[in-house]
Amino acid sequence: MFRSSKKIKKHLISFAVTIAVAGILFSTPAMVSAAVIQDMDLSSNYAKDAIAALAEQNIITGDERGHFHPHKPITRAEMITMLVNALHIDTENIPEKPTFKDVLQTHWAYPYVEAAYREGIIQGMSNGTFGKDKPCTREQMAVIFTNALGLSKQTIGSNQEFNYINQLIDKDKISSWAKNAIEFSLASGFMQGTGNQHFEPKQSAQKQQAALLTYRMLYNKEELLAFAEKKSHAVRYPDLYNALDINEPYRGEFNMNASMHVREVAAEKTTALAVYGNGAINGTDRQMKMTLSIDAPESNPSNFTFEMIQIGDKQYGKEADLGGWLEAEPEDIGDIVSFGMFPAELQKINAQFLKIYNTVPIEKIDSVEVEGALTTKYILFLNDQILKDLLPEDLQQDMDFQMLPDDIPFNFQIEFYLDEQKQIVKEVIKLNGSFEEEGKDFTLDMMIDVNFKNIGADIQITAPENVIDKIDTSQPIQQIV
Length: 481
Fold this sequence. Notes:
This protein is of the alpha+beta class. It contains 15 helices and 11 strands.
C-alpha cells in the first residue's frame, strides 16, 4: 500500500509538472507580447482592440522599451512584415538573389519582402527599388491590403462606378493605379476617409491604422470576399451595357468626322489626313458621301469626294473624275470606306467590348450637351494590347491597326453619348501614341467622331440611275488609295 501511494504521488507530481510546463509554454508568449506594448494608452480608441489582439498573437511587438508608437508613420518594410506575419506566409522559400536593389539579404525585412513579392502582394518602384524605409501612403496601403486579400485587379475593377471616390473633395489626388482598390475599400467599409470628405491618399499611414486593417483582414475576410464576389457579377452602368448589346442592324442617318495627324518630332513636320462623311443605313442598304483630304510635307494638299451606294450585295461608286456612277466590287472601294466608320462597323466593335466590359475603367459624366440635347457621357479607357487581343483581325483593319507600326504603345479612349431613350447618339474614338521609325521619333493622334440621327427610321435607299460601267482600277480614285 505504501508503494502504491508513492507511485500515485510520483504520477501526480509528474502530471503537475507537465501542466505547469504546458501553461508556461502556451501562456507566456501572449503575456509577454501584451506586456511589450507599453504605450497602448496613446492609441486612438478605434485601434486599441486591434492592437491588443495582434499583440496577443505576436503579430506586432514594441521596440526595445516596449513602445509601439501608434501614431508614427509605418514604413513599407514594416507594413509588409506585419502582413506576412499575420497571414503566416512562408518566408523560407525565397530567392537567393534579391528582387529589389534596396532590400538585400542582410536586411531584416528581406524574407518578408521577398515572400510578399512572391505572393503578388507588392510591386516595387519604377527604379527597381522597394522603398523599404519610405512611409507607406494611404493609397499604397489600400492596394497592398486588397492584394493581400487575394482580390485580382479584374475582381476589384469590376463594376467600379467610383461612387465613393467621387464624393471625396480630394479625389483628384488619388493615383489612377489606386482607384479601384480605394473604391472597393470604401464601398466595403474596409477603410474610411480621414474626415470632411477627404481620403488623403498621399498621407503617410499610421502604425495604428495598419494594425486596424490587418485585424479587419483577419477577422472579416469572408465578408470582404463575399462583397467582392457580389460586385463582380453586377453590371455597372446597365444603360450603357444595354445600348452596346444591340443585335439588330442600324437604321437611320449618320455623319462622321475623322482625322489623323502624324508628326515628325525633330523636323516639326506633320502629315494630316481628314475625312468627313454623311449618309444613311437601312438594313443591308446604305449610302454615303465622303470627302477625304491629305496634307503632307513637301507635297501639294489633295482631296477628293467620293459617294457610294449599296443595295443588297451590289455596290456603286461615284467620283468626279469617273464621270458618273459605276458598279463596284466590295474590294474596289473597301480601302476608301475604311478611312471612315460606318455604323455597322462600329456596332461590331462595340459588341466586342461586352467581353471586357466589367474589367475596363469607365467614367460617367451627366448632362453633356450634344446638338442641343442633354446626354449622358461614358468614357472607356483602353490600351492597344487589350484591343488587339480582343478584336478579330477584320475589326482591327476597320480601326486602321494595320496602318500603324506594331510597337506603338497606344492610349485608347472611347466615348459614348446616350440620349433620354438610352440610345447611342454619338461615339468618339480617340487614339494617340509615339513611335520610332527609321531612327526618327513620331507622334500620332487619331480621332473618329460619329453622330447618329433619326435612329430607327425607315429610310428609302435606291440604286443610282445611269450606271456607266464597273470601276476601272486604273482610274484616279484607286490611284489615290
